[in-house]
Design brief:
The structure is a homodimer.
Chain A lengths: L4 E6 L3 H12 L1 H8 L3 E7 L15 E3 L2 H7 L4 E4 L7 H11 L3 E4 L2 H18 L3 E2 L10 H8 L5 E7 L2 H13 L3 H11 L7 H4 L2 H15 L9 E2 L7 H9 L2 E12 L2 E12 L11 E8 L3 E8 L3 H17 L25 E11 L4 H11 L4 E11 L4 E8 L2 E2 H13 L8 E5 L3
Parallel strand pairs in A: 1-2, 1-4, 2-3, 4-5, 5-6, 8-10, 10-17
Antiparallel strand pairs in A: 7-9, 7-11, 9-10, 11-12, 13-15, 13-16, 13-17, 14-15
């Protein structure tokens, strides 16, 4: 390596701009810590002319990121374009093919093609780094690959999407419904105009796929993740959960079980005393359970220009220091192919909300179905006649641990009862 | 390096035994992650004969750690003897002199002699690693030196001592007084027979000294730390704090101010909503504030055989992987000597508890002293006549931000008032 780390950055959006700002502001500090200066020599963006508060004077500007990779001589290419296909992928692969180290914040790309790209990087003898892809403000990838290397990880569960956590926190604080809070989140810039990736759990699933691979040293299996978003969560669910001693959070959870790996993203009721229940607003947090450390929690900003830039730059410092660790903790050829435990085999407790006609015998019918499914009820709340004019009441139940397939079957039967007015709402309870 | 990392362990107490157990149980996993087997070839302890549930059959046993260092050919010496002087230091220095990497969990040793020992290690071209010295379960040293390398750290504040946190949590939960809870903690093994190092804040100060050096790249200054323990905290303080919306925690805090570095360990009132307020029992947590990441929190077990062993082994894996980072983030010769901000210059809010004679004019006298000291009161609670027979009432006040020297001066005057029955109790409020 030369006496300077030469860097090309593809994509000057929020994170790219933050990265330029960080490198500019911490110039001297980084040179000391990295034992050599970090110097951006080229950037690519469709609009490099816009004022970003950073002087691009001495930097070669390209509007074509592939052209930048082809024509510049650098040590590291940073991919901050985004998207699981297309130009982002081409930039990474072209950079690796030219023998450049690659840093990316692109969780979608890695969740879908991380193994192929890591294999290319390994073959080329370069680093593929992605700390910025998962909870930018805390070095969780580094913690899993290095700091907790002495542990077998049993479970990781985390609040991996700030938009969902903001919405659920605001729903709880204000009593408002999902749609209204989403609109507010959009106007505050906490949710995208098209919020699907966030509120439907896809973004959290991308991150979970990477955490799983690093934690267990296994091949990424994005398609093996059960994904469910938060659109169906109502203000009433949040209030009932609180009454029962729980908060509702969108969690990404990966567990290593005897039958394989269970990966799932869905809303959960978690006990109000659990550390994750206190993580509010746009913050993210990851709880790692190792066999020697026990539970360890990492909490901080999950997104945003500066926290993500901090992670990108930490990867640069590692590269400058010559730290080389296999992308997912082991050489790609040694990553295990673990079987995926289907959601129907999931075992846990459940929260069920029903809207039922208010007449005698309804609870008896429901209880009988649960009993026949060998599902044991833990608690029940019946809420007054909010919709008294309709003769409809809300019944909320929690169950003891049961198999998901039994629960689904019972709910289908319950939903088919003439007295049940709406499809039942089911939310899983996560013990923490 | 050979095709195997050969290790000698000095000290087979709780952590040494845990380390042997971990290396034994995760044998294959570690060989993969470290890209070579980690093999203990020698141990030293005054009693290597005791059954520790680990087979020492193929390991050379010594009762003299220095003899072990002198007579064995290893890559790494692990010092788990403890103590800031004597044999622990000699073992580290002898190992370095022989060109061995050194891993230690010894915060007392490093807080007092870390710079000298790091200088020796650097000169010898070996690693001095100490992740286990500060909150074993979370890789906070690694996070500061590597994962957050792009940040200027403004403040670190943490719950660094599990014994104190257990005692304060239990006092809050049960309403019992310090002495009673300490005795219970001792019987549960959460406090030592001689608890001074823990409850007087010394252990937390050792850790804080290391965090400060790594965070700012400065010379360790243990003597510059203001240290105050928790013996004077009463059940009434905890109850009053709760009434005012606070919990009491022993925090270690380091701040980088214009005038220098402020390092302090003392009980604090922290807002009930702050993430650190939810860290209960023997858990530790560290909150790091970087200029790019914002606040990031790391939480987990602070002590114990297995979490600490996990940190020791993570350092072994780093050494096996060839990761070499300067001990305190920069070469020793480049560590800054930062001036220490004395506690009298500290600026913050305060909680004051007074026992006063219950008669007219008392509050007027106290208020006048505060006014003359330009100290602005934020709230006041006067509690009923618990000691009515004595005619004594408890008055609790909180102030707005003020300088510590003004507060101390005012309290001396207040304490001298004839109506004030006991020396005033002052606890600092930490805004988080």
């Amino acid at each position: 390596m030369s006496d300077m780390l030469n860097i090309a950055i593809a994509g000057l959006g929020t994170v790219g701009t933050g990265t330029l700002q960080l490198l500019d502001r911490q110039d001297g500090l980084l040179a000391e810590r990295a034992l050599q200066p970090l110097r951006v020599v080229a950037v690519a963006d469709l609009d490099t002319g816009r004022d970003r508060g950073v002087d691009l004077g001495k930097i070669s500007c390209f509007d074509d990121a592939l052209q930048m990779v082809a024509e510049t001589d650098v040590d590291v290419v940073v991919e901050l374009i985004g998207g699981s296909e297309g130009i982002a992928r081409e930039v990474c692969e072209a950079a690796i093919a030219k023998g450049r180290h690659v840093i990316t914040a692109n969780k979608a790309l890695l969740a879908h093609h991380g193994i192929e790209i890591a294999a290319q990087a390994e073959k080329a003898g370069v680093v593929l780094a992605y700390e910025a892809a998962v909870v930018g403000s805390v070095p969780i990838i580094k913690a899993l690959r290095e700091g907790l290397a002495g542990n077998r990880i049993a479970r990781i569960t985390g609040i991996l999407n700030g938009t969902c956590n903001y919405i659920l926190s605001a729903m709880r604080a204000t009593g408002k419904e999902f749609d209204e809070v989403l609109a507010e989140a959009q106007s505050l810039g906490y949710a995208e105009a098209d919020p699907s990736f966030d509120v439907d759990g896809v973004d959290a699933a991308h991150k979970l796929a990477l955490l799983t691979a690093v934690a267990y040293g296994c091949i990424i299996n994005f398609d093996g993740i059960y994904v469910e978003g938060i659109r169906h969560i109502t203000a009433r669910d949040i209030a009932c959960a609180e009454e029962l001693g729980y908060r509702i959070k969108l969690l990404g959870t990966t567990r290593r079980l005897e039958q394989g790996v269970e990966q799932r993203v869905h809303p959960c009721l978690i006990p109000t005393g659990a550390p994750l229940s206190h993580v509010e607003g746009v913050l993210n947090a990851v709880m790692v359970e190792g066999d020697f450390v026990g539970p360890a929690m990492f909490e901080g900003a999950g997104a945003g220009s500066h926290p993500t830039a901090s992670a990108v730059v930490a990867d640069m410092v590692d590269i400058a220091r010559g730290v080389v660790i296999p992308t997912f903790g082991r050489p790609v050829t040694e990553l295990e192919k673990m079987s995926s435990v289907p959601m129907k085999n999931h075992s846990g407790a459940y929260y069920i909300r029903l809207s039922v006609t208010d007449k005698p015998g309804v609870i008896a019918d429901i209880s009988a179905i649960l009993r026949d499914g060998k599902i044991s009820m833990e608690s029940m709340l019946q809420h007054g006649r909010a919709d008294a004019s309709l003769g409809v009441v809300t019944v909320v139940m929690t169950t003891h641990e049961t198999q998901e397939s039994a629960m689904i079957e019972a709910l289908a039967k319950i939903g088919a009862l003439p007295v049940v007015e709406e499809p039942p709402c089911m939310i899983r309870i996560e013990q923490l």
